[in-house]
Amino acid sequence: MMPDLGQYATEVLTAYAGSLALLIAVVVMSVWKARRVQRRLMSVEQRREKSS
Fold first, then answer.
1. Could you give the maximum distance between any two Cα atoms of the chain, in Å?
2. For residues 45 and 52, is the Cβ–Cβ distance under 8 A?
3. What does pTM read for this prediction?
Protein backbone atom coordinates (compact mmCIF):
# COMPACT_ATOMS: atom_id res chain seq x y z
CA MET A 1 0.00 0.00 0.00
CA MET A 2 2.82 2.41 0.88
CA PRO A 3 4.89 3.50 -2.14
CA ASP A 4 8.65 3.11 -2.02
CA LEU A 5 9.95 6.55 -1.04
CA GLY A 6 13.60 5.69 -1.36
CA GLN A 7 16.10 8.09 0.13
CA TYR A 8 13.40 10.67 0.94
CA ALA A 9 11.33 8.38 3.16
CA THR A 10 12.35 10.14 6.38
CA GLU A 11 11.54 13.61 5.06
CA VAL A 12 8.21 12.56 3.54
CA LEU A 13 7.07 10.67 6.63
CA THR A 14 8.15 13.57 8.86
CA ALA A 15 6.13 15.97 6.70
CA TYR A 16 3.10 13.67 6.92
CA ALA A 17 3.46 13.44 10.69
CA GLY A 18 3.82 17.21 11.03
CA SER A 19 0.78 17.85 8.86
CA LEU A 20 -1.27 15.36 10.83
CA ALA A 21 -0.15 16.91 14.12
CA LEU A 22 -1.12 20.40 12.93
CA LEU A 23 -4.49 19.16 11.70
CA ILE A 24 -5.21 17.49 15.03
CA ALA A 25 -4.13 20.65 16.88
CA VAL A 26 -6.51 22.80 14.81
CA VAL A 27 -9.42 20.44 15.45
CA VAL A 28 -8.72 20.21 19.19
CA MET A 29 -8.40 23.98 19.54
CA SER A 30 -11.59 24.54 17.53
CA VAL A 31 -13.57 22.17 19.74
CA TRP A 32 -12.07 23.72 22.88
CA LYS A 33 -12.97 27.25 21.77
CA ALA A 34 -16.48 26.21 20.69
CA ARG A 35 -17.14 24.69 24.12
CA ARG A 36 -15.78 27.80 25.85
CA VAL A 37 -17.96 30.10 23.75
CA GLN A 38 -20.99 27.89 24.39
CA ARG A 39 -20.44 28.10 28.16
CA ARG A 40 -20.13 31.89 27.99
CA LEU A 41 -23.26 32.17 25.86
CA MET A 42 -25.23 30.04 28.31
CA SER A 43 -23.99 32.24 31.15
CA VAL A 44 -25.10 35.40 29.36
CA GLU A 45 -28.49 33.88 28.55
CA GLN A 46 -29.01 32.86 32.18
CA ARG A 47 -28.17 36.37 33.39
CA ARG A 48 -30.55 37.82 30.82
CA GLU A 49 -33.37 35.52 31.97
CA LYS A 50 -32.81 36.54 35.61
CA SER A 51 -33.00 40.23 34.79
CA SER A 52 -36.20 39.86 32.74
1. 69
2. no
3. 0.73
